[in-house]
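Is this the right way to post structure tokens for a design question? Let me know if I should format differently. Anyway, here goes:
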């Protein structure tokens, strides 16, 4: 126990720009709150104000420049303290790893440009949980300290509110959890909150922070607050109770160096319903994140190879929209209905910018590829009204791969073709499939091909309308018969009445991979849950299942077979198109759901046939193993259950196997034993905090049609043997196709953009540096093992290598001047010495 400890009073204004109001109201409230804070600084000489979120300052800068100038003076004075370093206080589970990097990049650089400083304290006092890679992300963002409030003590016990938080790679930040609200004093007495923190400080042997100020809808410290604080300090000691900031608190703690514990864990769990509330905004978030990354990559190549101006300003605007929509009450799905109309518009602008910039880059590259044939004298459409094919010479298409490894996958070409070859003239197998159009009786067919495209690269394929160039027979065939899909590796059987997957048989080992029925649509009762899922840890109150299935063979061919399974529950309809390719044991499913339920949840269940199950899932720029206890948890693009294969014959060594479940737009699941349940949809009331259930004026979320995809990935060995990171990204980032014509050009018909020697290293980002003449390449280690990898960027004529700690994220600055070395920088694109 220490007698010299202090309570640091933190004057703040928690500002939700969107929650029970729309962003325009939040915009106005931020201006009023900042004006109030400036007034307090004028009225009380000892007062210090703390505020995060670069987006708020940008609004004030553009709409109240005189007030912004005042703020700059107070920041320079040291009495207005900027914390957080991020664009907004986001949900800290659901954005991608790269989105967190962008919050740091744009937030910290904004603060540096406008105020000459960067935040040193990470600050997310209202976010609903914090993933386990946060310490490394904070350190890479120039922040050595972190401040949060949730989960609170009743949600997660911590030995001490001040601790070292460590992530898997060994990064460590000094972290403080608020033991009380970020807002005003409690009603239990004028000094109860401060005295409680004074007592805790003495018991724990280190200073404490105590927050005050009207919050949520802004406001901040009031005159009455500061007058009361002056009375309390006079009564209980001015030296022991000080007006302070998080920066000052952590500076003092580093100096005093108290003995505090090290915690290596995620900070969970609060508001479990927020991982699945409002499907549309979550799906658009995922889509926008990936589209902007693809746009940046190919805009970079188009600039390097062909001089297309890099679209930095529009891409930055698009990222600002995506980051704003990651605010915790938006990304968490707990705002009012009208707010999500705005969210749709912000995502729409970001997606449109991504589409335009991506198209410009792809068109620039494809137009520069040499596709000319000697027989062609000039362009003509005499042969076909759609393509530019002449005299059975073929029409070129360019298939682009935005991922940093070679991808082999099925690609749909929007025209019925007779044959297709690669750039070398080698014919490849073809399958006719139904198109989305119905243009008369005959024009309703597309073609399916297997494309194999280099990393960060492209490949030209030649399509023939009439010329038949037979392809070599496929090594294995894929079959469909009534309710069974089968290839050389796997056999999938669907129950004829229920529509559930009754069997997934591994034909190579003659073992069953399911421990019961799979793809079971389970309806969960959640009348007891508000929008957030407050006070809950699970959603497992089953009240029904979809059934009465209709099964139809949708596709039957040499490359892929598909069964359409349609099932029903009340007025809701679930349609699952279950596909199996000829060359893979992966089972791909496209889903259309028409959901008409209220206060209910839909989960899809997959019981995996293993013993001693373990569960691992993706978190931002990393992974985590969690207990298989049925608790609702957040995840990113994949979750895996693996364990010992049962029924091993006497004398044989028991093998490890498992199954991954990938998704393209979902963020919630639970695992109980070896059963994965992916949360598909919830239908609570909008922004409902335990309202009356008989209110007939409320509106419910996620009514109507939504579409998404998932993939089952059986694998031998542990999750590390399943290529889950790569396959999940292949589901989320399919190849891009561009029709072309005949023209000369400087580029070859096949090109590889990046070469990475180690499969465990994935490159997520290739973009122009924010400043300086060079490029940014960001990579991370995906399997939790130390490794060294070599890198090649042929377009930049660059090669280098780097050693990675397990789960380490590395950002490389590649100068335009090839005489200058590639160097490592942080998320803010600064070297540690800068």
């Amino acid at each position: 126990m220490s007698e010299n400890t202090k309570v640091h009073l933190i004057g703040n204004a928690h500002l939700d720009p969107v929650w029970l109001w729309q962003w325009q109201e939040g915009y106005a409230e931020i201006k009023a709150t900042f004006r109030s804070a400036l007034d307090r600084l004028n009225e009380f000489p000892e007062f210090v104000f703390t505020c995060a979120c670069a987006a708020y300052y940008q609004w004030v800068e553009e709409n109240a420049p005189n007030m912004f100038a005042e703020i700059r003076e107070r920041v320079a004075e040291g009495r207005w303290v900027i914390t957080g370093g991020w664009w907004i206080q986001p949900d800290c589970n659901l954005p991608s790893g790269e989105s967190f990097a962008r919050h740091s990049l744009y937030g910290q650089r904004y603060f540096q440009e406008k105020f000459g400083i960067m935040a040193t304290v990470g600050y997310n006092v209202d976010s609903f949980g914090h993933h386990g890679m946060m310490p490394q992300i904070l350190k890479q963002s120039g922040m050595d300290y972190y401040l949060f409030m949730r989960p609170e003590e009743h949600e997660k016990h911590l030995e001490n509110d001040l601790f070292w938080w460590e992530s898997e790679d060994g990064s460590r930040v000094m972290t403080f959890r608020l033991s009380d609200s970020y807002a005003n004093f409690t009603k239990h007495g004028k000094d109860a909150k401060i005295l409680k923190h004074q007592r805790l400080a003495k018991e724990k042997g280190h200073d404490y922070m105590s927050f005050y100020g009207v919050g949520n809808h802004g406001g901040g410290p009031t005159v009455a607050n500061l007058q009361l604080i002056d009375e309390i300090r006079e009564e209980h000691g001015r030296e022991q109770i000080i007006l302070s900031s998080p920066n000052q608190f952590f500076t003092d703690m580093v100096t005093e160096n108290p003995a505090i514990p090290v915690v290596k864990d995620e900070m969970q769990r609060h508001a479990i319903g927020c991982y699945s509330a409002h499907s549309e905004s979550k799906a658009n978030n995922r889509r926008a994140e990936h589209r902007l990354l693809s746009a940046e990559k190919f805009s970079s190549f188009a600039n390097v190879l062909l001089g297309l101006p890099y679209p930095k300003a529009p891409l930055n605007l698009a990222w600002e929209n995506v980051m704003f929509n990651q605010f915790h009450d938006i990304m968490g799905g707990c705002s009012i209905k009208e707010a999500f109309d705005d969210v749709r518009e912000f995502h729409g602008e970001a997606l449109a910018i991504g589409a335009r910039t991506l198209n410009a880059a792809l068109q620039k590259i494809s137009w520069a590829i040499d596709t000319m044939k000697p027989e062609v004298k000039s362009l003509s459409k005499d042969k076909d009204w759609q393509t530019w094919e002449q005299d059975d010479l073929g029409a070129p298409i360019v298939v682009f791969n935005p991922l940093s490894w070679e991808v082999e996958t099925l690609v749909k070409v929007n025209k019925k073709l007779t044959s297709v070859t690669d750039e070398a003239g080698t014919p490849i197998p073809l399958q006719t499939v139904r198109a989305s159009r119905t243009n008369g009786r005959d024009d309703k067919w597309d073609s399916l091909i297997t494309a194999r495209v280099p990393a960060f690269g492209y490949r030209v394929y030649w399509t023939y309308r009439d010329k038949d160039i037979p392809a070599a027979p496929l090594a294995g065939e894929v079959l469909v018969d009534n309710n069974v899909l089968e290839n050389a590796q796997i056999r999938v059987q669907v129950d004829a009445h229920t529509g559930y997957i009754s069997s997934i048989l591994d034909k190579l080992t003659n073992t069953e991979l399911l421990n019961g029925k799979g793809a079971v649509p389970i309806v969960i009762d959640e009348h007891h849950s508000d929008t957030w899922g407050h006070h809950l840890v699970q959603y497992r109150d089953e009240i029904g299942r979809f059934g009465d299935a209709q099964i139809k063979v949708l596709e039957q061919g040499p490359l892929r077979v598909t069964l359409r399974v349609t099932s029903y529950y009340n007025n809701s309809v679930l349609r699952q198109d279950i596909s199996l390719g000829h060359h893979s044991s992966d089972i791909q499913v496209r889903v259309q759901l028409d959901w008409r339920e209220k206060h209910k949840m839909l989960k899809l269940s997959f019981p995996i046939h293993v013993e001693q199950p373990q569960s691992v899932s993706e978190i931002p720029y990393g992974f985590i193993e969690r207990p298989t206890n049925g608790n609702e948890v957040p995840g990113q693009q994949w979750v895996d259950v693996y364990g010992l294969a049962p029924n091993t014959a006497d004398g044989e060594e028991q093998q490890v196997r498992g199954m991954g479940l990938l998704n393209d737009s979902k963020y919630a699941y639970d695992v109980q034993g070896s059963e994965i349940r992916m949360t598909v949809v919830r239908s609570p009331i909008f922004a409902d905090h335990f309202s009356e259930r008989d209110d007939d004026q409320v509106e419910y979320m996620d009514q109507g049609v939504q579409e998404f995809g998932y993939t089952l990935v059986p694998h031998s060995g542990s999750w590390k043997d399943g290529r889950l990171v790569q396959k999940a990204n292949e589901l989320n980032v399919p190849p891009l196709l561009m029709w072309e014509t005949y023209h000369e050009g400087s580029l070859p018909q096949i090109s590889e953009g990046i070469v990475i020697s180690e499969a465990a290293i994935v490159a997520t980002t290739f973009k122009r540096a924010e400043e300086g003449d060079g490029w940014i390449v960001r990579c991370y280690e995906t399997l939790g093992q130390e490794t060294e990898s070599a890198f090649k960027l042929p377009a930049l004529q660059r090669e280098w290598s780097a050693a990675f700690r397990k789960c380490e994220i590395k950002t490389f600055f590649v100068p335009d001047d090839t005489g200058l070395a590639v160097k490592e920088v942080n998320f803010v694109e600064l070297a540690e010495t800068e």
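Format looks fine. Someone answered above. Worth noting: Residues 71 and 77 are 10 Å apart (CA to CA). Residues 395-470 form a domain with the Immunoglobulin-like fold (CATH 2.60.40.1180).
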